[in-house]
Amino acid sequence: MSSSSAASIQQHFSNLTDPRTRKVTYPLVNVVTMSLCAVLGGADDFVAIADWAEDKKEWLAQFLDMSSGVPSHDRFNAILGALKPAEFEKCLLSWITALHEVTDGQVIAIDGKTLRRSFDAASSKAAIHMVSAWATVNHVSLGQVATDAKSNKITAIPQLLDIIEVSGCLVTIDAMGCQKEIAEKIVNAGGDYCLAIKGNQRLLHQAIRDYFANAMEIDFTKRKVHRHETHEKGHGREESRYYYLCPIDADDFPYASK
Q1: How far is Cα 218 from Cα 201, in angstroms, rounded to an integer?
Q2: Beta-bridge mates of residue 171
Q3: 122-153 as b/e: b if 16+ CB within 10 A
Q4: What are phi and psi of 98, to 5 degrees?
Q5: Torsion angles phi and psi, residue 253, rounded to 5
Q6: 164 and 142 in contact (C-beta within 8 Å)?
Q7: What is the pLDDT of residues 150-200, one digit of tens each?
Q8: Residue 122, phi then psi, degrees to nearest 5
Q9: Number of neighbours of residue 80 by Cβ within 10 angstroms
Q10: Which of the two residues, 185 and 255, has the higher pLDDT score?
Q11: Contact in structure between 53 and 36 (CB atoms under 8 Å)
């Protein structure tokens, strides 16, 4: 299969349910293709999508049946608004993955952000928190899961790992994602992980602090260590960072076998 066919919108959106029950004027693949291309071209509302498609009719006719022309902005609104979000997300993720093949060995950063102005005081609706996976080499979002509570990030991360490909990649997550179940899920999927440790894992955090404190006192004598340091200047200050990477010795570390 050629790379162009592997990244075909028609192929990856073939399982998307058409919400219209009557005879249709505009094929669903036309509506989806026009919308995706228009948004990628900078369109930010339905009027802009319709205007973009009207300007690009000749180009679109190279791979779409344009005999019915371009839908109005109201038609774009009605059709896209009736699609099943979960189905569309699955198709979109499949298409994006085909366009941006995840580079073997790259870093996938998983992080959560609170959407601005998503809190509705009138209905007491909680703010929306999005947990997303970002492929750092390809500069593309591989997927995201919404949750209405920041604490639910622990449950959202496994859901996100179910829909993205992490095989051969290094997954980084902040301290909230430092859970045995999450680490196990990444390893079972063929990936590696780098998890931050903070006070939410009190005993493990203290054990790591003690390990490195003792090692630094003897300048890592008889211990394998990789060192790295950076020095930066900016905003009237100098910042130095020192990194020490050590393999864990089961005889020296109480959590090595847990």
Answers
A1: 26
A2: 108, 193
A3: eeeeeebbbbbbbbeebeeebbbbebeebebb
A4: -70, -35
A5: -125, 120
A6: yes
A7: 557 788 899 899 888 888 899 999 998 999 999 999 999 999 999 999 988
A8: -65, -40
A9: 15
A10: 185
A11: no
How far apart are the C-alpha atoms of 107 and 137, rounded to whole Å?
7
pTM over 0.90: no
**DSSP character string of 70-103:** ---HHHHHHHHHHS-HHHHHHHHHHHHHHHSPPP
Taking only the tens place, the pLDDT of each residue in 6-15 is 568 888 898 8
Backbone angles phi, psi at 168, to 5 degrees: 80, 5
User: Of 213, 178, 184, whose CA–CA distance to 199 is shortest?
Assistant: 178
Domain boundaries, the chain: 3-99, 107-196, 201-245
> How many whole angstroms separate alpha carbon 35 and alpha carbon 62?
16
Q: Which of 93, 54, 108, 60 is closest to 76 using CA atoms?
A: 54
On whether the CB atoms of residues 133 and 144 are closer than 8 A, the answer is: yes
The matching CATH number, chosen from 3.30.420.10, 3.10.520.10, 2.60.40.10, 3.40.630.10, for 107-196 is: 3.30.420.10
